[in-house]
């Protein structure tokens, strides 16, 4: 019986109902246009955001790579500095020793075969050269 009541309902086509339907249709059209505009706007905002993220992401990656290279160069230069400091320290020790006249005479005698008057210098092979000649036979 309920079905009969639903089929018996008909719409009244008055000027007011037509105006309301036209207003609803116009509102629905405006809503669709507003949704399209909002979608375009949100797409533009998201696109700008993505561009900024990509730009700054690339900058961060490049700065990290340059930092890694710089740290590698710093480590390399620090090891070089250590060796130079060690060499400098050894040279300072040698200068200090060369200021000692007894040590200087000893070095001159050994290195340049300098002799005092009436001295004879004999050059003898060292133990390392004798052992290498016997091991090579």
UniProtKB/TrEMBL annotation:
<keyword id="KW-0472">Membrane</keyword>
<keyword id="KW-0175">Coiled coil</keyword>
<keyword id="KW-0131">Cell cycle</keyword>
<keyword id="KW-0132">Cell division</keyword>
<dbReference type="InterPro" id="IPR007060">
    <property type="entry name" value="FtsL/DivIC"/>
</dbReference>
<keyword id="KW-1133">Transmembrane helix</keyword>
<dbReference type="Pfam" id="PF04977">
    <property type="entry name" value="DivIC"/>
</dbReference>
<dbReference type="GO" id="GO:0051301">
    <property type="term" value="P:cell division"/>
</dbReference>
<keyword id="KW-0812">Transmembrane</keyword>
<dbReference type="InterPro" id="IPR039076">
    <property type="entry name" value="DivIC"/>
</dbReference>
<feature type="transmembrane region" description="Helical">
    <location>
        <begin position="42"/>
        <end position="61"/>
    </location>
</feature>
<protein>
    <submittedName>
        <fullName>Cell division protein</fullName>
    </submittedName>
</protein>
<feature type="coiled-coil region">
    <location>
        <begin position="67"/>
        <end position="101"/>
    </location>
</feature>
